[in-house]
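Components:
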Amino acid sequence: MADTPTPRTTAPARSQTREDKHRETTVRVERSAVSLVLERGFDNVTVDLICSQSGISQRTFFNYFKTKNAAIIGAEAPTIDENRARAFIAATGDDLLPDVLTLLSEIGPRAGIDEQLFTDRLRVFGLYPELMHEQMERMTRVTAEITELVYLRLSRSAAAHSAGDADAAFRHGQAELLTHAMLGVVRYMALQWIQGNDATVGAGADHDKSRVDTPTLTESLHRTVELLRRTLSIPGR
Amino acid sequence: MADTPTPRTTAPARSQTREDKHRETTVRVERSAVSLVLERGFDNVTVDLICSQSGISQRTFFNYFKTKNAAIIGAEAPTIDENRARAFIAATGDDLLPDVLTLLSEIGPRAGIDEQLFTDRLRVFGLYPELMHEQMERMTRVTAEITELVYLRLSRSAAAHSAGDADAAFRHGQAELLTHAMLGVVRYMALQWIQGNDATVGAGADHDKSRVDTPTLTESLHRTVELLRRTLSIPGR
DNA sequence: AGGTAACTTGCAGCAACTGCACTTTAGAGT
DNA sequence: ACTCTAAAGTGCAGTTGCTGCAAGTTACCT
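Structure:
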C-alpha cells in the first residue's frame, strides 16, 4: 500500500494534511460508535448520538460511513495484501490448507489498527452476532480474488503433469470450493477467538484492561489447522 | 410440530381456518414482493407498494414479516427436519461429509413450497447478493444444532475405542469445525446452482417458463461431494 | 492574497419500522 | 342462532436510518 507516497509538491512536516484529518476523524467516530454501543447497547445508540459525541454533523457522518453499522464494524473494506498474495502463490504446494487459512485470516485485522478499538470491536461482535455476520459478509467480497490466488497456486503445483483445459476448469472448481470451505473455517476461528476473549475479559476484573494472554492469531491458527488435519482424515477412513 | 394436530373441538372440513388464511396471505405477499423486485428492482420496491399489491395494510405487513427483506427471502425460519436429523445420527459413520452436506442443504428449501416462488426467489438471489447473504446468515443460526448432531454422530462411530472427557471435547471441536466448513461448502453449492439457473434462464426465451433441466439438488450435491473428496486428498499429499 | 476544489453542514424529505388505540372478525360457549 | 372474547387487521403518529441539494467553510495551490 505504501502508506504515504505524498504526491504533493511540497511535502514538509505539515501540521494537519487533509488525509490525516480524515483518518483522524474516522477513527475518532469509530471509537465513539464502538464504545457507545458497548456501554448503552446497540438499540440505544442513534447516529445522532455518535455524531454529537464525535463532534460532527449527521450529514458528515454519512459522508464518512455508508451506514451506521459501517462505523461500528469499521469503515475500511477488507483487502488482500499484495505481498502476502505473491508469497502465497510462490510458496511450495504442500501446505495448502494452512496457507489459505493464513491468507484469509489476514484480511480481517488490518495492519496499524488501534489496539483498544480492535478488542472493543471484538467484544461488540461477541454481543451482537449480526454485526459479526456483516463483517464476515464483507470478507466474502474478496472471495473471487482469493479463489484466483488458490487457483494459481494449484496450477503451479500441478503444472508438471497436467495442462489440459479440462484440468484447468477442474482446478478452478477446486479453488472455489476450497476457498468457501476455508472461509467457513475462518468463521469458526473467529467465533472461537471471540469466545476466548470474552472469557478472559469476564474472568479479569473490570480494572484489568491491560493485555491478558490473548491466544494470538498464529496460535489459534495452528490449533485450527491441526484440528482440521485430524478431522479431515476421518471421512475418507 | 406435527403440522395439523387440529386441537379444535370441531375439526370438520371448515372452509377457511385461521391458520390457513394466515399461510395464504403469507405466500401471497411473498409472491408480490418477489415478483415486484424482479420487475422493478429492489430499490424501486417499497413496502407500501407490496402492501397495496397484496391488499393488506403496511401495519399488517409488519405483523407478518419482521422486515421488508424477510418478505422477499421468505418468512419461514430455516429449521432441521426431526426425522432427517434422527436418520443422520443413526447412519453408519463412513460417509460423514456427504451426509453433513445433505443435512445442511435440506434446511434451505422447505418441503411444500410454491415452485414458481422458489425459482423466482432464486433469481432474486442471483441479482441481489446481499439478500442471499442474509439467507445464508439465517442458515447459520442453526449451526449449534447441526454441530450437536455432528458431535453425536462422531461420538457414535468413535464410541468403541475412546470415551474420555478429553476425547469428547476434542470431538466437539471437530464437530464445530466441520459444521462451519461444510456451511462454507453449502454456500459454494448455492452460488454454483444459482449461476447455473441464471444461465438456463438467460438462454431460454422469456416465454419459456416451463421447467428446464435444473441440475437437481441431489445431482449438484453428488458433484460437490466428489470434488470435495478429490480436493481434500491434496493438502495431506 | 486570491481562487478553486474539496470538505462540511443544515434542511427537507423518503422509507423502514414500532407502539398504541381502535375496529373487525373468527371461533368457542350457550 | 346469539353472544362474547381474544386474536387479527388497521390507522396514525412518531422515531430512526439515510439521501439529495444548496449553501457555507476550509485547505491547498499559484
